[in-house]
Amino acid sequence: MSALKNDLLLKALRGETVSRTPVWMMRQAGRYLPDYIKLRDKYSFFERCENPELATEITVMPVDQVGVDAAIIFSDILVVPQAMGMEVQLIEKVGPLLPQPVKSAQDLQRLCVPDVHERLHYVFDALKLTKQTLAGRVPLIGFAGAPWTLLCYMVQGKGSKTFDEAKAFCYQQPAVAHQLLQMITDTSIAYLKAQVAAGADTVQIFDSWGGLLSPQDFEVFSLQYIRQIVAAMKEICPTIVFAKGAWFALEDMAATGAHGLGIDWCIKPELARQFAGSNITLQGNFDPAKLLAPIPEIEKSVKEMLKGFGRQRYIANLGHGILPNVPVDHAKAFVETVKAHG
């Protein structure tokens, strides 16, 4: 396996001194890239995910075309519910659909904690092939959805702005909810460990809907399960936790032992650092929609963000996934401004 030529991301996560700020973008492998759109028009989503050659091609695209300092494997958080026994459909321009959502304890009998090597081998094959293709140019990031976020989809059955049915399920059937959350957690730990064995240099846990919970409920239904995952992984590789909207829990998330915390754009860098403390790396927090601004505005805002976070213990990124309508040259301007910043 090739030695890493660019290890800025890993150095930043370990708290080591970096020569410049590393940069990558959530959802960088995909929907805004014209070459990806050509593949999207030819193959279904799961065809793209389950074919290691296609997944590798998509994963490496932003390294070649945008110049980011890390690759993140092309996959989806919903491969975990799928591996656990749920039908998952991903419909272009509509979103995820799980036709038989979990509504009761009886529904859990349809699910299992799977053998991840049997059910998710295609992800590991893609990681191995991507690692070979990258040949040490940049680190490779693996990922999984946080248990709470996966429960949201498994109970609601589709995307939602509020996930009210998922929340009602947790409040009305807490024992069943916790049983499901533990099943997801156990699956995710095995899945992430296997991703590292296949070549991932670091892993990120995406809690996209953590911010829908109150501080008390975030601990009960989300953080206690994230804590288990971080504890299982932290001796194996650096871990990043990204809980969108859950700025109120930055101090508690930092205490999990994670190496990095993703930050959305709704909190000032200085306040995020104050909450998280000085012993953890922060990642973020550019508003993805701001990549639609004129390039001079993007450059100005990126410099302000970099000044706010400082160079050490920081990874430049977006505060959520890149939008499909962002021009590639605007994404490049974001990356190149970070790289040029002295």
TrEMBL record:
Its GO CC terms are: cytosol
Per the UniProt record, the site (Transition state stabilizer) maps to D76
Cite the GO molecular-function annotations of the record.
uroporphyrinogen decarboxylase activity
Q: Entry's InterPro entries?
A: UROD/MetE-like_sf, Uroporphyrinogen_deCO2ase_HemE, Uroporphyrinogen_deCOase
What is one GO biological process annotated to this record? Answer: protoporphyrinogen IX biosynthetic process
Please give the catalytic activity noted in the UniProt record: uroporphyrinogen III + 4 H(+) = coproporphyrinogen III + 4 CO2
Q: Subunit arrangement?
A: Homodimer.
Name recorded for this polypeptide:
Uroporphyrinogen decarboxylase
